[in-house]
């Protein structure tokens, strides 16, 4: 079984990566402290290849339609296969990878790997944008958007873009959605759900309840009006 985690950086994806690793799932031969599979350079470049085919409509609107029907760029395929070589060559029964930038190429990842198990990981955007991440400036990965010097707004736009690209992609056969907050505050229940989904036993890891709702003590800008519809859909109170 092949597993990957789809979720923006600073959404708490390290928790599920560490859970899978501690449960015997091979998540790469070289990992950083966040559980990201290294080296990431080929996948980063794959992001830039796919971004060329995203149509920017202005504001917070992007057209991803062509990505679902056009031939996948051969350069993209080569780069992804190179990045995942260590996973494909590993003989473990259960294996996968975690790298937040995978979310930026989700439409073509689903087309390349329609039958793998996807774990969709989300976090309250107000908490997610409080910390810096490599994907804060989408232009670093070739994604067109209206640039701003406002750091929090850049992060918010990145959160919104990644939310939109996931929503625009046809749902693969095997998908499980998890909120970071539920994993932290109700780990037993979420693990039971994931165990049923993956068909393997999962061990508990140490979690910190104070990682939930950090925005409540934040003095900076952490809420943007364009979050509201997604927050409502995801069950986050405004």
How would you describe what is shown here?
With 238 residues, the chain is of the alpha/beta class. It has one domain: Rossmann fold. It contains 10 helices and 6 strands; from the N terminus they run E-H-H-E-E-H-H-E-H-E-H-H-E-H-H-H. A hairpin with a 2-residue loop joins strand 2 and strand 3. It starts with a strand and ends with a helix. The mean pLDDT is 97.
In short:
The protein has 238 residues and is an alpha/beta fold. It contains ten helices and six strands, in the order E-H-H-E-E-H-H-E-H-E-H-H-E-H-H-H.
The count of helical stretches stands at: 10
Average pLDDT over all residues = 97
Q: Quick one: overall form?
A: globular
The CATH superfamily is known as P-loop containing nucleotide triphosphate hydrolases
CATH class: Alpha Beta
The topology string of helices and strands comes to EHHEEHHEHEHHEHHH
Helix content: 25-40%
Topology, element by element:
Elements: E1 2-6, H1 13-22, H2 41-51, E2 55-58, E3 61-63, H3 74-83, H4 85-88, E4 95-97, H5 106-112, E5 117-122, H6 125-128, H7 151-168, E6 175-179, H8 180-185, H9 187-198, H10 228-234
Parallel strand pairs: 1-4, 1-5, 5-6
Antiparallel strand pairs: 2-3
């Amino acid at each position: 079984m092949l597993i990957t985690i789809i979720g923006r950086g600073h959404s708490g994806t390290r928790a599920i990566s560490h859970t899978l690793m501690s449960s015997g799932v091979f998540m790469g031969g070289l990992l950083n402290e966040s559980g990201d599979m290294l080296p990431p350079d080929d996948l980063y470049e794959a992001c830039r290849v796919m971004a060329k085919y995203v149509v920017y409509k202005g504001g917070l609107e992007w057209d991803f339609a062509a990505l679902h029907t056009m031939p996948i760029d051969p350069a993209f395929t080569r780069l992804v296969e190179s990045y995942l070589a260590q996973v494909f060559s590993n003989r473990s029964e259960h294996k996968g990878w975690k790298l937040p930038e995978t979310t930026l190429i989700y439409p073509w990842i689903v087309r390349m790997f329609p039958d793998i198990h996807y774990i969709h990981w989300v976090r309250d955007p107000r908490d997610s944008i409080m910390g810096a991440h490599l994907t804060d400036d989408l232009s670093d990965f070739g994604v067109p958007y209206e640039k701003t010097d406002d750091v929090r707004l850049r992060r918010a736009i990145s959160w919104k873009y990644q939310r939109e690209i996931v929503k625009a992609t046809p749902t693969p056969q095997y998908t499980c959605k998890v909120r970071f907050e539920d994993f932290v505050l109700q780990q037993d229940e979420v693990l039971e759900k994931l165990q049923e989904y993956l068909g393997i036993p999962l061990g508990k890891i140490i979690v910190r309840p104070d990682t939930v709702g950090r925005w409540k003590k934040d003095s900076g800008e952490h809420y943007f009006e364009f979050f509201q519809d997604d927050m409502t859909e995801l069950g986050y109170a405004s």
